[in-house]
Every structure is written in structure tokens, then in C-alpha cells.
Amino acid sequence: MDNPFPYRLYLVISEENCAGRPLVEVAESAVRGGVDVVQLREKNRSTKEFLQKANALKEVLDSHQVPLIINDNLEVAKQVGAYGMHVGNSDLPPSEIRKKWNTPHCLGYSIEYLEQLNSPEAEVSDYFGVSPVFATPTKTDTVTEWGLEGIAKIRSLTSKPLVAIGSMKKDNTFEVIKAGADCIAVVSAICQAQDPQRAAAELRNEIERAI
Ligand SMILES: Cc1ncc(COP(=O)(O)OP(=O)(O)O)c(N)n1
Ligand SMILES: Cc1nc(C(=O)O)sc1CCOP(=O)(O)O
Ligand SMILES: [Mg+2]
């Protein structure tokens, strides 16, 4: 893969964050607004349920040529034919995923400590999640709140794409991209929005304004 992660606006979605609306509808609206990569993150589902949602989501994303990334679950990623996976420190390590999933796939790895950047896991990953940029109620088991200074620090230490995640919204997107992030990943700013398409378009505008 030449550049496995050229994306700018990343939707991280689960049914429970969609305010009672069907996940696939929210995702499709977001894509119409400018989301160019989607991660399915279903934390409390069986593999069977996760796979059903992944299949439904992939069908819609394929029709828009938008790639699907699967959070944590290699079986689901393999069976749905995902573009890639995202994992963190407590998950199956990227090097193990590379061994178990033969053809090249896009792997994202959460950076919670600077030391991770020098690890073999970082070496085999295609992009890094800056985890989190700002504290968020959507995920509370986090370690370092990197802030803008943290993004700049990580930027100075790697040329791989950086995905900013954690309380990302319209009002902080510009400065986060200017600090060195390549991509913005959001849950609430799109999934909780009354109009997910419009919310995505507003985020996309901020990104385009900053690059
Ligand atoms: C783009 C992106 N960045 C970070 C994460 C967090 O991954 P992880 O630390 O493995 O936590 P969970 O999402 O598994 O709870 C992410 N999912 N996506
Ligand atoms: C899935 C996820 N990972 C994070 C990390 O810090 O690694 S924060 C997060 C949730 C981000 O949700 P919201 O956009 O609603 O703040
Ligand atoms: Mg994980």
C-alpha cells in the first residue's frame, strides 16, 4: 500500500452513540457530509452481532468507496473484509495482527505514551491515534491528555499520519490540524448531532481551512 492512510475526517461509530437512530443511516449521512473513513467500534457485542453490523455498514460504505476499519476484533475484520483495524495498548498487538491477517491491511495504533513511538508495534502500524487530545466522556479509561503541545511533540517524532481523537469538534479542529494532526476522529460531534451530514460538512470545512 502506497499511502494506506490519506484520510482527513474519521467517524468512529457504535449503535449506542447514535441517539436511537440506525447506525448505518448516521454513517451514510456523515459520509455525504465529508467523512472519508469509518471505524466500527462495538464494545459490548458478541462477535456475531458485531459482524452483522459490520456487514450492513460495509455494504453502504462500499457504495460510497469509503473504507471500513474495525475496532479491536480481528475475526470481524477478517470476515467482513475490512480495510483495516484500530487497536490500542490492551489489544492484540499490531505485529500479531500482521502475522494473523496475511494481505496488507491498514493498521491504526493508539499512542498513550511517547515511548510507544519507538516500539516494534509502532513500526508496523500505518497511522497513530493521538489518544486522547482532550478528555472525553465517550471514553474515560485514558491515560495522557495530549493537548495541542502533545500533538506537536508527537508530530516532531514521527512522519506517520496522526489522528486526533477525544472531544474533537468544529471549534477545535482548526488548531488541532495546525498543531500537526493529519486527521480528526469523532464520535459525538457527528453521532449525537441532530444533522450528522451537516455536522460532518462543518468539520470538513474546518479541516480544509487548516491544511
Ligand atoms: C482513531 C482511534 N484512535 C484511538 C482509539 C482508541 O483505541 P483503544 O485505545 O484501543 O480504545 P478502544 O477504542 O478500543 O476503547 C480508537 N478506537 N480510534
Ligand atoms: C474511541 C475513542 N478513543 C479515544 C482515545 O483517547 O483513544 S477517545 C474516543 C472517543 C472519542 O469520542 P468523542 O468524539 O465523543 O469525544
Ligand atoms: Mg482497543
Automatic annotation (TrEMBL):
Pathway: Cofactor biosynthesis; thiamine diphosphate biosynthesis; thiamine phosphate from 4-amino-2-methyl-5-diphosphomethylpyrimidine and 4-methyl-5-(2-phosphoethyl)-thiazole: step 1/1. 4-amino-2-methyl-5-(diphosphooxymethyl)pyrimidine binds at residues 39-43, 71, 110, 139. It is an enzyme of class 2 (transferase). Keywords: Magnesium, Metal-binding, Thiamine biosynthesis, Transferase. Mg(2+) binds at residues 72, 91. One of its GO terms (molecular function) is thiamine-phosphate diphosphorylase activity. Its cofactor is Mg(2+). The keyword Phosphoprotein does not apply. Residues 9-190 form the Thiamine phosphate synthase/TenI domain. Its EC number is 2.5.1.3. InterPro entries: Aldolase_TIM, ThiamineP_synth_sf, ThiamineP_synth_TenI, TMP_synthase. PANTHER family: THIAMINE BIOSYNTHETIC BIFUNCTIONAL ENZYME (PTHR20857:SF23), THIAMINE-PHOSPHATE PYROPHOSPHORYLASE (PTHR20857). HAMAP family: TMP_synthase. This is Thiamine-phosphate synthase. It comes from Euzebyella saccharophila.
